Amino acid sequence: MGFKCGIVGLPNVGKSTLFNALSQTAAAQAANYPFCTIEPNVGDVGVPDPRLDRLAAIGKSAQIIPTRLTFVDIAGLVRGASKGEGLGNQFLANIREVDAIAHVVRCFEDGDVTHVEGGIDPIRDIETIETELMLADLDSLEKRASTLEKRLRGADKEAKEQFDLVQRSLALLQEGKPARLVERKPEEEKTFRMLGLLSSKPVLYVCNVEEASADKGNEYSAKVISRAREEQAEAVVVSAKIESEIAVLPAAEQKDYLDTIGLAEPGLNRVIRAGYKLLHLVTYFTVGPKEARAWTITKGTRAPQAAGVIHTDFEKGFIRSETIAYDDYVGLNGEAGARDAGKLRLEGKDYIVQDGDVLHFRFAN
Q: What distance in Å separates the CA atoms of residue 257 and residue 155, rounded to the nearest whole number?
């Protein structure tokens, strides 16, 4: 199951520096968090999760395989992209293909790095990109509404459902608000996603600050974090320059470097985890002597569908899952201890897999 997070931003905000640091970090830690470049601007990066290392140690697993996110370095956007300015058409097409947006926002002063808008104003920059996405959505929905109106004359039920969502989305966009804020029922979610609206993508704001502010941020990043709270979005503070320096250090030297500058972990770890959270993803684990492995599912996934992430045959022939909560597995030192303590449960087809579950699936061939 693949999940893509597109890295976007205006030119000269540190977008590509951040992406390059992601790739270098993963390459340097290939044993635990492999990074695979699919194309020059696309890469898979392991999601840092200390629980996986703990489980592998208890299970004496020979290999550790983390779950992954795909990051896409999307072409820089300029004002007018919705009308094809710059690489606008490519930018908009690439955004349609991702599940979420990591929006890199410049929150640092540097006279040697020109800002395309002439000065530092992260909220203005956010609104520039969001406006282009909303303009593209307005154009798309107005065309779609015209087509749907013709289908409505034939009492097409599906067209009516789409038309209602289109009208609600248009009303919000015309107020200058992104489509992700459209109120909708759970049963409308699939139809809403089919509209393919760019401004409906969940957003993670990545505040790129100067080195001195990498720990606590600055006045610019504070404004972005405040906006993220209002939107119920995610926001993290990083210094892309520091991250690029950490990425090329040997693993043994990285902790010393982080201690020297007062950071508990690389900022990119927070970016990856925030992207994971943004997509409402959870992790379950399988543990054995060959490997300890993390698997990605969306929150609310039932056991047969979780099994299908490993192999479709597991879902088709699902019987039940042997289930141990992470805390029980660790506290009782593995499967045998959990079984003896009555903490290994047999769960059926209606069980909703919880974050951290250690699972073993029983299925019929």
A: 66
User: CB neighbours (10 Å) of residue 326?
Assistant: 18
Q: What is the pLDDT of residues 66-100, one digit of tens each?
A: 988 888 888 665 555 445 544 445 667 788 888 89
Residue with tokens 């459209």: 182
Question: For the segment 13-59, what is each residue's pLDDT rounded down to a tens digit?
Answer: 888 888 888 776 544 343 344 445 455 477 778 888 999 999 999 99
Could you tell me the strand order of the sheet in which 63-65 lies? 63-65, 291-298, 281-287, 358-363, 318-324, 345-347
Which DSSP letter does residue 103 get? E
Shortest CA distance to 82 belongs to which of 198, 181, 178, 202? Answer: 198
Rounded Cα distance, 139 and 83, in Å: 10
Residue with token string 């045959």? 313
Q: Which is it for strands 68-73 and 42-46: parallel, antiparallel or unpaired? A: antiparallel
- Per the rule left: phi > 0, alpha: psi between -120 and 50, beta: everything else, 9 is left
- List, in sequence order, the alpha helices (H) in 248-365: 251-261, 267-278, 303-310, 312-316, 326-331, 335-340
* Spatial CB neighbours of 50, under 8 Å, sequence gap ≥ 6: none
Which backbone phi and psi does 5 adopt, to 5 degrees?
-120, 115
Q: What is the largest CA-CA distance in the chain?
A: 69
How far is the C-alpha of 207 from the C-alpha of 139, rounded, in Å?
30
The answer to whether the CB of 358 falls within 8 A of the CB of 331 is no
Tokens of 279: 């997509």
CA distances from 28 to 67, 71, 122, 124 (A): 17, 17, 32, 36
Q: Which two tokens stand for residue 22?
A: 């992601």
Cα dihedral sign, 147-152-155-160: positive
Per DSSP, 352 falls in state: B
Point out which residues pair with 177 in neighbouring strands: none
What local confidence, expressed as pLDDT, does residue 356 receive? 97
Rounded mean pLDDT, 254-258: 88
- Closest to 330 (Cα-Cα) out of 338, 339, 322: 338
